[in-house]
Amino acid sequence: MNGVLDVIAGACLVVGALLSLSAGVALMRFPDLLSRMHAATKPQVLGLLLVLIGCALRLREAVDITTLLLVAVFQMATAPVAAHMIGRAGYRAGLAREDLLVSDELRDADDKR
Amino acid sequence: MSGGRWRDRCVAALGLTVIWVLLWGSFTPLTVVGGLVVAVITLIVFPLPPVTYAGRIHPLGLLRFVTRFLRDMVMASAQVASLAFRFGHVPRSAVIAVPLRCPSDLGLTLTAEALSLVPGSLIVDADRKRGVLYVHVLGVESPDDAEKFRQDVLDLESRIIQAFGSPAERRVIKEVPA
């Protein structure tokens, strides 16, 4: 039983680490600030959750699992807020590359106001 | 002060106490009472703005929302990850305005949070008065994709309302076509 849990934990840790790696690569490769925000906030959320699940399966102590749970809850509650604040500030500062946007309905709405 | 306000405060105090106990990692009378004291003091010093919440949680709708949310998150994470490794390809994107059908504060916030956690979409701005979310979507190549995504957001909103909404909001969701 413990062997099976260890294998699942290992798989979770490896997949989580790979997702975090992809987030890092995307951060380097994506062309503008808004695209990079996707990479900085997203694959990394699932990556972190998988790493936490992997840790929980290995540690198996109530004390550790409650702490991991808190990490997950706070990460999921704060990541969107941070992404929104940076994205909004970046957009308003004109850092979104317009040549990469298929359509920009926020600019249209701003123009009307 | 109305009863609803007191209910909100009790829920907030309870939530803070649970976090306190989880942080200590042990469930003893000392941590529970200590947590309650800290929670009450926190709420007195930093009062929360009133949240108008007329709904209740619908277990079946919640289950449907959570399973679909997890599925979306896994699929979209894989999508963004694969986009990261497609060398020589510059991903295009779009900023899409999505007018929500039930723009209560809570509905707007929950939809924005859920959207932000799923890869590929990012809230650039929110118009609280008119209930419009401006979403930056990664990997949009054509206006058709943008239209499809707008529909996805409205579907997400209706799942959230089915899980948390008030009877009036649920009626609106059923009547107004997405």
TrEMBL record, chain A:
Keywords, alphabetical: Membrane, Transmembrane, Transmembrane helix
Residue ranges of the TM segments: 6-27, 65-87
Residue runs in coiled coils: none
Pfam families per the UniProt record, alphabetical: PhaG_MnhG_YufB
Entry superkingdom: Bacteria
Protein family: Belongs to the CPA3 antiporters (TC 2.A.63) subunit G family.
Protein name: Monovalent cation/H(+) antiporter subunit G
Species this protein is from: Paractinoplanes ovalisporus
Organism phylogeny: Bacteria, Bacillati, Actinomycetota, Actinomycetes, Micromonosporales
From TrEMBL, chain B:
Species this chain originates from: Paractinoplanes ovalisporus
Listed transmembrane segments: 9-27, 33-54
Domain of life: Bacteria
Membrane topology, record value: Multi-pass membrane protein
Matches recorded under InterPro entries: Cation_antiport_E
PANTHER family assigned: NA(+)/H(+) ANTIPORTER SUBUNIT E1 (PTHR34584), NA(+)_H(+) ANTIPORTER SUBUNIT E1 (PTHR34584:SF1)
UniProt subcellular location: Cell membrane
Protein name: Na+/H+ antiporter subunit E
Family, per entry: Belongs to the CPA3 antiporters (TC 2.A.63) subunit E family.
Keyword set, alphabetical order: Cell membrane, Membrane, Transmembrane, Transmembrane helix
